[in-house]
Amino acid sequence: MFEKALIMYIYAETPIHPGSGAVISGIVDLPVQRERHTEFPIIQGSSLKGVLRNSAENVGIEGTTKIKEEGAEVEKKWVDVIFGEQDRVGGISITDARILAFPVRTLKGVFGWITCPLVLDRYRRDLKLVGNDVNWSIPKLESDAEAKICENSNLKAGNYIYIEDLQLKCSEDSNVNMIAKEIANGLPNDNTYKEIKEKLQKDLTIVSDNVFSELVVLTTEIFTRIKIDPKTGTVEKKAGPWSEEYLPTDTLMYSLILIPSRLNNLEPEKILSQIMKYNEKILQIGGDETVGKGFARIKLVKGGSKNVAKP
Predict the structure, then answer these.
(1) All residues at 6 or more sequence positions from 164 whose CB lies less than 8 Å from its CB, including other chains
(2) 0.85 exceeded by the pTM?
């Protein structure tokens, strides 16, 4: 079904607002996109596809290639071959971006990242889908008051870890170190990311699904914005204050880019080489670009040799 695959990691350099256009819960005027059943943050695949297409020329995807169409060989722009046209499907499939590691305040170490067994189980299944095996197991938590941390964590305070306003009894687990190392591969190889990668490999914490669900709902960033009347210099009464929700800086998400062999004479490897031009580039995702929001660093990791998903 899919001959090639990429894991696309999305690291928030600034707060990101992938707007949902509808309120699922709470009173935020402009909330972020969330799964309906878990309320975990997501970025819809259609949004990501639009971002990639809009940035294609900037990353160097240009020119044309030849494909077969109705028995004839025709020349098409690469951007249309990859992302599709109004009357023709493109050469890639992009899944919704899922949350992988969410940044939270901590009593020690300034901040750390949390994840949970449900997130990790999905991540493991997605890695298997693209042919990447894992050598770690997901630690079991006995209660919502427990957390698993890395063996060299900076966040530990005695027998506890303090996340936001929660006190959780913690225990070290070597599996958390292996998971943190795997997740840290989602950050760029650039030396400027060396320190943040090292921190992630130390300061990842696994909390229960219930605790994770609460924190990704209650600890996103909420900004109140206003519109100024240029004539009076005061707030426009018809455009009063409104609130916007953002995924915080240092959030790490991931999506899958799947490349089927639906084009008659175009090898998936050629599409793969074009998509790799996005690797380690900064893209703008979501709204509020003019106020410095939505900038994210992309990291692409190729799927393994067993990356063919059978129907």
Answers:
(1) 104, 105, 215, 218, 219
(2) yes
